[in-house]
Amino acid sequence: MTSATDATPSIASPRSPRRPAARRSNFELYSWLFMRLSGLLLVVLVLGHLTIMLFLDDGVQRINFAFVAGRWASPFWQFWDLTMLWLAGLHGANGLRTVIDDYARKDGTRFWLKMLLAASMVLIIGLGTFVLFTFDPNIGS
Ligand code: HEM
After folding, report:
1. What angle (nearest 5°) sits at the alpha carbon of residue 64, between those of residues 92 and 73?
2. Inter-axis angle of helices 75-103 and 107-134, nearest 10
3. What is the dihedral of CA 67, 68, 69, 73, to 10 degrees?
4. Are 87 and 41 a contacting pair, CB within 8 Å?
5. Where are the domains of the chain?
6. Which whole-number Å values give the CA distances from 54 to 6, 20, 43, 60, 61, in the listed order?
7. Using CA atoms, how far apart are residues 87 and 41, in angstroms rounded to an integer?
8. Which CATH class is domain 27-134?
9. Which pLDDT does position 1 carry in this prediction?
């Protein structure tokens, strides 16, 4: 049994020292929130996309240049595909950023993997956006 006179044991602080105020930011909080919100929107966008492309009418059999041209004649589907492209790109890249932070052991490896990730994200999102805005349905004529 312990008596009231026992000294309270002292242990070292388990937390890492806090960073100076000037370097604190809410970036990781917003990035965490973005993953949840973009995930929710992606459920609707991706499941809608798959339903239209794979299940309705003849499904994948009917997809050709004319089908894509027909869909992209509508600003609604252009906006749908643009949003899906940007959200999937940013969500996927931000998720991989977390994976790199978790698993890359050396500073150099982490840095170069993130550079590669950023470059591929800019390329894929940039190229996709470019195609969406410059698509010419009369390319053959
Ligand atoms: C269909 C709708 C989707 C939902 C609901 C969803 C949801 C989520 C959520 C909530 C997280 C955070 C997990 C965590 O922090 O523990 C996450 C992480 C991630 N997501 Fe998605 N996501 C979806 C689509 C996608 C797509 C299309 C991609 C790829 C382009 C993707 C790639 C990733 C990656 C790489 C991670 C990081 C995994 C990790 O931290 O271990 N997700 N997703």
Report:
1. 75
2. 170
3. 110
4. yes
5. 27-134
6. 72, 53, 16, 5, 8
7. 8
8. mainly alpha
9. 46
- In the reported structure, the alpha carbon of residue 35 is separated from the centroid of ligand 1 by a whole-number distance in angstroms of 7
Q: Which two structure tokens, joined as six digits, stand for 1?
A: 């049994």
The residue contributing the CA closest to ligand 1 atom 3 is: 39
CA distance 123 to 141: 29
At 24 the pLDDT is 80
The number of residues making up the chain comes to: 141
The H helix count followed by the E strand count for the chain is 4, 0
Q: Which of 91, 97, 113, 117 to mutate to test the pocket of ligand 1 (most atoms within 8 A of CB)?
A: 91
Per-residue pLDDT of the chain (141 residues; tens, 9 = 90+): 455 556 788 877 766 566 556 668 999 999 999 999 999 999 999 999 999 999 998 889 999 999 999 999 999 999 999 999 999 999 999 999 999 999 999 999 999 999 999 999 999 999 999 999 999 888 876
Q: Which residue has the tokens 């969406």?
A: 132
Residue 7 CB-half CA count within 13 A: 3
